[in-house]
Design goal:
Blueprint lengths: L7 H14 L11 H10 L8 E6 L4 H14 L4 E4 L11 E3 L2 E2 L2 H18 L7 H15 L4 E5 L16 E4 L7 H4 L3 H8 L9 E3 L6 H11 L4 E3 L6 E3 L7 E3 L5 E5 L28 E2 L5 H18 L4 H12 L8 E8 L13 E3 L21 E8 L4 H13 L5 E5 L11 H9 L1 E7 L9 H9 L11 E4 L2 H8 L7 E4 L2 H9 L1 E3 L1
Parallel strand pairs: 1-5, 1-6, 2-5, 6-7, 7-8, 11-12, 15-19, 16-17, 16-19, 17-18
Antiparallel strand pairs: 2-3, 3-4, 9-10, 10-11, 13-15, 13-20, 14-18
Helix pairs in contact: 1-4, 1-5, 3-9, 3-10, 4-5, 9-10, 11-12
Length: about 525
Amino acid sequence: MASTTDSYGAFLQRLKGYERLEPFPRSRGPEKLAGVKRMAGALGHPERAFSVVHVAGTNGKGMTAAMIARLLDRAGLATGLYTSPHVADIRERIVLRGALVAEALFAKAGHRVLDLADTHSADFHFSFFDLLTLIALEAFREDGLEWVVLETGLGGLSDATNIVPKNLAVLTRIGLDHQHLLGEDLKSIAGNKLGIVQAGVPTVLAGQPPGLESWMARQIEASHSTVLETSRFRIAVDRTLPHQPALLLPHGPSLSLSPADGQTPPLADGKTPPLPHGPARGRPPLLDASLVTGPRLICAANALTAAEHLLGSAEGEALSARLATVLNTKLPGRLDLRHHQRISGGEGSTEGTTEGSTVNGAKPAAALPETTMPETTMPAALDTVVLDGGHNPDAIQALCDQLAHWNIRQYTLLISLQKDKLVSALEPSLKRLLAGARRIITLAPQNVRAPQRETLHAFLSALLPPGKESPPLEEAETPRTALLRASETPRRPLVAAGSLWMMGDVIQLLEDL
């Protein structure tokens, strides 16, 4: 039914109706794009109104897309960014000129797309992501943007974003994820993501697992696309000056970092995710060393390679400015290190608090006396929090590596996994993450994609280190309950991991002290 109001709230209610129709992601063949293409034609082809950088891959595609958009912003180009999923606000998915899409524009574009979807629903099935992609394209055209950076949602070949003519394709590192939809091995998954490659359009190819990169390069060339390798921008950390480490490009500048002394400020405000943009002019600030993670450096190489093609080569201070720009790009919930966090609205915790908890049917073990909150009520707070929504083997391995680099150990682990992530491929990296935990808290199912407690706990229990030293598995009814229980030992780091949907709930509950 067509809308009778342009209100933002009314639009969100209509959009949620489509989301409820398809709670689980599913991959369909390229023929499913027929409906999306028909809709784009009925809208007057918004996808042809701007130049496009199209990004696909398994790990780092969202960060790479955000970095490229920020570089285009700094070059003075009116740029849009489309990524998924969102963490706290659905408008995070659509960024125009460095700002979240305005509610009025979102609703205007949204109602127009949904009105058309209603008229075509008898002939075509539209997923939530199909419609959101069309809404983003319509909003980008309405705003008169010059460039748009699009991140695929799932795969590449039959992804809704693949209806666009593009100026550059970018393929980030391929890993095992969504095997039940994309294929059981790396080549099958890569083959689907290679579907974004277009004849005559160059393709940035990130470093890949052994044997895969050369195969992908041959496939790209067979598609009559030129391969742009990222090896020129592989970045190393110079630690010869331990109190002032620097980043080194193989044939470029060095960039000084602030000391990683554990006292750096939080990376976000705890309420609103930081926008993936920055000032268009001015000398880049000193980089916080906590931002220089291995995955971020890989994404930086992807983005710098794209920028060299799109904006021309840069050397010296110009290249240093580009490097600082991409490394200052932040996305919440991705290797997100924060310090001195207060739980919003938390009444504080006292020693032995167990409200809302289950620990294999028993109360949780008493916290260590030296790290337990005093018995008098105090504001619930945590000294150190790491948030990472990575949920595939490579992403969890990267989290473990980064925790070791930050010297974060003996942590409280808050973990949530969706049903389709309880697979054998995840077990080695998940074993390592669990082994470093002093306390493990899971969340009760918060959505239809979450497994039941018994299923999740059975999967995790089999991965715990043998012996009495393994902590019992607890369950919290809500994210707030989980955070309050973690704050019983405020000096013990909290690591929240495994699901981006959980990150949104957690981030909205955290505030800077």
